[in-house]
From TrEMBL:
This protein's record includes keyword DNA-binding: yes
One of the GO biological process terms: DNA biosynthetic process
Domain Reverse transcriptase positions: 1-184
Protein name, entry field: LIM class homeobox transcription factor Lmx
Domain of life: Eukaryota
Coiled-coil features, chain-numbered ranges: none
Annotated keywords: DNA-binding, Homeobox
Length: 184
């Protein structure tokens, strides 16, 4: 793990993002797996249309345009609008491996690819390197490894059903950043 500063006090561990440094061989495998997983998710319309993060032809601009369009439509109809902005703290680090693996399986990612993902997530250890000093390895019990090729898409699978559970609202997501909008 390489701690990447997010800004703020450099003495606070909370102000660092843990980037996983993996071997080049693993990155090649990840790219192959990611290509298969993304093609499967997109061709089967598995990912929620309200998720704009880390997807082809979607991003912060499409999320922002849809959000403002929804607000303008509501205001033009004489409605008021309430918006809740959510940013889940340490969202990538808190992903439960068993739940994520169940969700990938239920999405149709099964067989050898699923087994590879299970191996990729489980039985991991991590060490932290700071100023050339390497810590002792610790077991990784949760989370998707940040800074890896697969980390983002695995998180999207994990968070995919979030927007399905909000009735009577308009929800828009960019990875773990979520906007919930309701007209009143």
């Amino acid at each position: 793990i390489f701690p990447l500063s997010k800004g703020g006090s450099r003495t606070s561990p909370a102000n660092y993002r843990p980037l996983s440094l993996t071997s080049h061989v693993i990155k090649i495998f990840e790219r192959v797996i990611k290509k298969y997983v993304v093609e499967h998710l997109e061709s089967n319309s598995v990912l929620n249309v309200n998720q704009h993060g880390f997807r082809s032809k979607r991003g912060t601009i499409t999320q922002l345009l849809e959000h403002y369009d929804t607000i303008l439509d509501a205001l033009c109809m004489g409605s008021n609008v309430d918006v809740i902005y959510l940013d889940f703290a340490k969202a990538f680090d808190k992903v439960d491996h068993e739940l994520l693996l169940a969700k990938t399986y239920n999405c149709g990612i099964q067989g050898k690819i699923h087994k590879w993902l299970e191996t990729f997530l489980k039985n991991r250890t991590q060490s932290v390197i700071v100023d050339g000093a390497l810590s002792s390895p610790l077991n990784v019990l949760s989370g998707v490894p940040q800074g890896t090729v697969l980390g983002h898409i695995l998180f999207l699978i994990m968070a995919n059903d979030l927007s399905l559970s909000c009735k009577y609202t308009n929800i828009s997501c960019f990875a773990d950043d979520t906007r919930i909008l309701a007209t009143i």
